[in-house]
Write a structure and sequence with these properties.
2 copies of one chain form a homodimer. Chain A is α/β, with parallel strands linked by helices and about 400 residues long. In chain A, about 40% of the residues lie in helices and about 15% in strands. The first copy, chain A, has helices spanning about 10, 20-25, 45-60, 75-90, 100-115, 130-135, 155-160, 185-195, 250-265, 270-285, 285-310, 335-345, 375-395, and strands at about 30-35, 95-100, 120-125, 140-150, 150, 165-170, 200-205, 230-235, 245-250, 315-320, 325-330, 350, 350-355, 365-370. In chain A, strand 3 (about 120-125), helix 6 and strand 4 form a beta-alpha-beta unit.
Chain lengths: ~400, ~400
């Protein structure tokens, strides 16, 4: 039998990852790739994590190898609650935290727990492509809201909320893919629009701590909206390879259902890694470690925008990142970044064309570039190659 | 807003885990618990795994901490293919294997990729309770097939296949919860019934290697049926805490969709642990290690059935395990194991009543007992307590 006939409607509605395809094409060692979203390996505290492995095996023995509880290691949940209370003035206990297998799993779980086929989901336009994937399995109706320099367009948000919407999914800090951050004013307006609605507000915040300068903006929902969910991860600050993220919510009833979905999904997150990360956090200064990562990424971001200033034709626009891992390039209207991609590969430079970050848009004139996983010299050379191509194209 | 109103139909259809509730009640240190499904901690090669951690960090550096590919570590996939080819005469390459976050995630993925609401799923009666959970999220129609001493009832299977069924889910070796193994004859009959149908055959085999005596029976679908899926795990042979399982299929087109679902679910399985387990397997003799686990579990199983022979009233029946981790007790008809449970807890002994292993059956006269996670003396004492209670009840 044709495999196609066996498939669910949900999986058929789920776009395959464009990035995976790209990464293969970009795996030629001569290609300078800004396509992936990889942290710089120097952000992994390898020696300290190795020390933590030894310590937890010696101290907790078989507990670090045995089955464990679905919600996650209580000590790690407590650490997360304490940290968010200290940094962001939230009122959390360990009961407000569930450990997930990367924050990608959190997207899967909220989709499962909140969405039936045809339910509405509000997302940014553009938004994180793997969130589109995770939610698409439930076959929702997406309502994309324009993302401006200030954040979500409030008028569009109000209009979209006329529809039967289950949740709003937003990445307010150093957004993936654009690198944009919502202003304080925009956050207040969104809060005011959402606060009396029966809708869950999901803030995905993997990059908030990678803030190059200034203060972390207050959360829109966390600590304020009763049905808010805040997602976090250790992937950008400790290690992505150990797939350790978390869900924070003050709605413990909702967490109970997320926990049932998690149990059905993988029983619990790798407890060995939970012990190791918890021990690392207890015995090292995470703030100091993050400060080093930020200094590095700021330098690399600067190298990229400096090179763009120099090599890109003036008709090409780009965001200037204040944190996070990405910047967003806008070509003149009518120029497809997707059709630029194979030409760029020929010139040995790669990026992600905008298309997979939108719902149902093709040949967008935008592209995402990552600056965290290459040194400054490589960044300059890659942008020079891309700039030359753009100049030729826009001649 | 009431949280209930926010929930999807899928999560409302998913039974919460009965075992979790029980485990809490049974966490009193005076209670002898046969309720969980925990391997004996001696089955964890702690020192060897610690050596592997050090070796892979020294050898592969940041690769073990970075993001990785969705299908899993190629070397580990190759190891699995080679092992199954050697032991079970299968024709696998690494491309036939996807690494999953425990084999529980494999259940989640097959549900997502194959099931739409209302699709038919054939399961054993009784079956693994967390498979019921994982599939229930997709709201299928379950067709439970009586599990006899020989395996699945073939007549019932043929009848159930008249319905629009997407897949058959079976645990042919040392089944959870019953401990039963399908006979060679039964396997042939099932193969004959299934072979010309447009249906996926899923063999879940976490316990097959824990075979106390005799040969591993041939697989029903793997290597024979084009749309067969074989699930395996390192949870019972190396460590469950690292959540490393795998999907094997010769249908690589189907694997492609399972991989898309996995990417949307958690991007990839913890790569640190994949490296560690692969290095452990490469540098140690797994067969020798498994032989030790089997000898231990056989002794413990014997202690349990010996104690049952001695302390249980003759009207109570139980399976005699030849492998795996569980045995299955059948009380006289009309006696509810569920209502026995609180009385057993009072006597400081715990088990899992049969109910959660069935679709829509309450007050079943059956219960599952685990014998792997207690020493022989504790097993005898626990069975003595349970036996006394049963004698009183059946007086």
């Amino acid at each position: 039998m044709n495999t196609e006939n066996l498939l669910s409607e949900g999986i058929k509605a789920t776009p395959p990852s464009f990035v995976r395809g790209i990464l293969k094409a970009a795996s030629d060692p001569d290609v300078i790739s800004f396509a992936g979203g990889l942290p710089n390996p120097v952000s992994f505290p390898q020696e300290e994590l190795l020390q933590s492995v030894e310590r937890v095996v010696r101290t907790y023995g078989s507990n670090v190898f045995q089955y464990s509880v679905t919600a996650g290691l209580p000590q790690l949940r407590q650490y997360i609650a304490d940290r968010y209370n200290r940094l962001f003035d939230l009122p959390l206990t360990a009961d407000n935290v569930i450990i997930t297998t990367g924050s990608q799993q959190a997207l899967d779980l909220v989709g499962k727990v909140l969405l039936d086929k045809g339910d509405g989901v509000i997302v940014e336009k553009p938004t994180y492509l793997a969130a589109i994937q995770a939610f698409s399995l439930q076959q929702p109706v997406f309502y994309p809201i324009e993302l401006t320099q200030d954040g979500m367009n409030p008028q569009q948000l109000e209009r979209a909320l006329q529809n039967p919407v289950k949740f709003i999914y937003a990445i307010p800090n150093f957004q993936n893919p654009t690198g944009l951050t919502y202003s304080a004013e925009n956050r207040k307006r969104i809060y005011e629009i959402v606060k009396d609605r029966d809708v869950v507000f999901i803030e995905d915040d993997p990059y908030g701590e990678l803030c190059f300068d200034g203060e972390h903006q207050p959360y829109i929902g966390a600590g304020k909206l009763p049905n808010s969910i805040l997602l976090g991860t250790f992937s950008k600050t400790v290690t992505p390879g150990m797939r350790t993220g978390f869900i924070i919510s003050e709605n413990t009833e909702l967490l109970k259902y997320l926990s049932i979905a998690k149990e059905a999904g993988d029983l619990h997150t790798n407890i060995f890694s939970q012990y190791v990360i918890w021990d690392y956090l207890k015995n090292n200064d995470l703030d100091l470690h993050i400060a080093k990562i930020k200094a590095l990424y700021q330098k690399q971001a600067q190298a990229m925008t400096d090179a763009m200033d120099r090599y890109f034709p003036p008709a090409v626009k780009y965001t200037k990142p204040h944190g996070g891992m990405f910047l967003w390039v806008t070509l003149p209207e009518g120029i497809s970044a997707m059709s630029l991609f194979p030409k760029a590969l020929e010139k040995k430079v790669a990026f992600v064309p905008g298309d997979p970050f939108y719902i149902g848009i093709e040949n967008a004139n935008t592209m995402r570039l990552n600056y965290t996983n290459a040194d400054c010299e490589t960044i300059r050379e890659g942008i020079r190659r891309l700039g030359n191509l753009l100049k030729e194209l826009l001649k």
